[in-house]
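Example record

The entry below shows one chain as it appears in the dataset: sequence first, then structure tokens.
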Amino acid sequence: MRNKIILLGILGTLLMSCGEDFLTISSKTALTDDVYYKTEADLKAAVNAVYAPLRVLFTGTSATSEGANAAYIMGEMHSDNARYIINPLFRATVNQEQVADFIHLASNSVSTFKYQRTYSVIAAANKVLSTVDAAEFKDESARNNVKGQALCLRAFSYFDLVQYFGSVPMHLEPVTTFEGTAAPLASVDQLYAQIIADLTKAIDLLPTRSNQADLGRVTKGTAQMILANVYMVQRNYALAETLLKAIVSSGEYSLMPDYAAVFNPANKNNSESIFEIQYCQGTDGYSSTFCYGMLPYPMDISTVAELTGVSDPQPLNGGEAFNVPSPDIIEAYEAGDLRFNATVGYAKDIHGTQFPFCKKYLHPHLQFGLSNDNWPVYRYAEVLLFLAEAINEQGKPVSEALSYLNTPVGKSPVSLRGRAGLNPIVAGSQEEARQAIAKERRIELAFENKRWLDLVRTGKAVEVMTAFGARVKANPARYYFPTGYRPSDQAFSKIELVWPLPSAEAMYTPYF
């Protein structure tokens, strides 16, 4: 958003400074709408650009940049699942710490980064949607695929924005004037109505996973899953159940037999993947970096080499450990749960102090800082978890709800509980089942950006985070604060459910 506004301002200044003849001459060195967005190849390239900001949003530009890793910092560190470990020698991480400590400021660079990059997705999607119908395509199925992807990703982005920020501007057309950048705030109801409309169209337009030409692109199942998530937020459990069962009956997805294998880069876009952000190791700019931000800082070169397997290891100095598994999430695992060792590891910093770290996304790769892991957004496991919850919340038999966790479903060779090496869940009431399902979600989807939104969705955020904040303040050392450090007095003083709109955007609009 901000970059777009700046570019429009520069363009306006240039146009006003040139004579009338300039306005009638087509540029011979730059692609414009007159010569681009005309063919099937143009639109396929354009829809690729809709995905690009997601890769930046989920990994940032480095483990220490101001907006780095905004997705997981706001989804996991902004909950009782994860903390940070202060590096006294590196204090450029205050904004990330504020997110974890519930100090909500409109100037926070992490929330601003998330807001702006999400609108970058929307802007790119709007460009596709405004031109795709007039472009030349060899067949309508290809046009529908491009259009469906843009609709799905726009809806996904607005769904993210409304959950984290509440009322936000709603742009459904490309912004072509400076004045057009300042749109009124749409209500939460208006945003959800548009999200549902976009996803409903996308479901009709998109191919199934098996018919999508390129793995990693959104599909019919992706749109169905996002829409089911929307209905779960709205507590429309019957509609969510219908969509979720359609995903199961499609036969397009199944659980991987081994939980750890789900996240291994060797198994990218596996049978369990409904939507994941794509990365590729190497120097081309497509690699991921988030595993480095989750390691204890500072760390010596030998430990880095051992953990990452890179041929050119470097010590970790200029940074701070993020997304550190809290004592609370560690204690939530049942004895013998195979998911623990796939999710939580332990490593020593340069001082010899051992800390837990999230190892779900740490796998051997070739070069330092250029890892190969994708980021899972939706997995088939969550379909089963949502189904259990939707059925239970409608007051249907507890045994029916829990069957989606206790027994293999559809084409899956294992059940969620069986894959974890655990006995089936037993519950005697709807409330017992509700608590068991919520705990299972927390463990199964740990560090996948679900925890904070789940707490808000189920009405538990204020209660859970107030108690968590009290524990952090009462025993800072237990929550990884070094001697002499403790949370700010403002930390956890008020648990806000949405973030303030960024002050960096407020100067450009009268509506904030």
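Notes for this example: DSSP finds 21 helices and eight strands in the chain. The longest strand covers residues 273-277.
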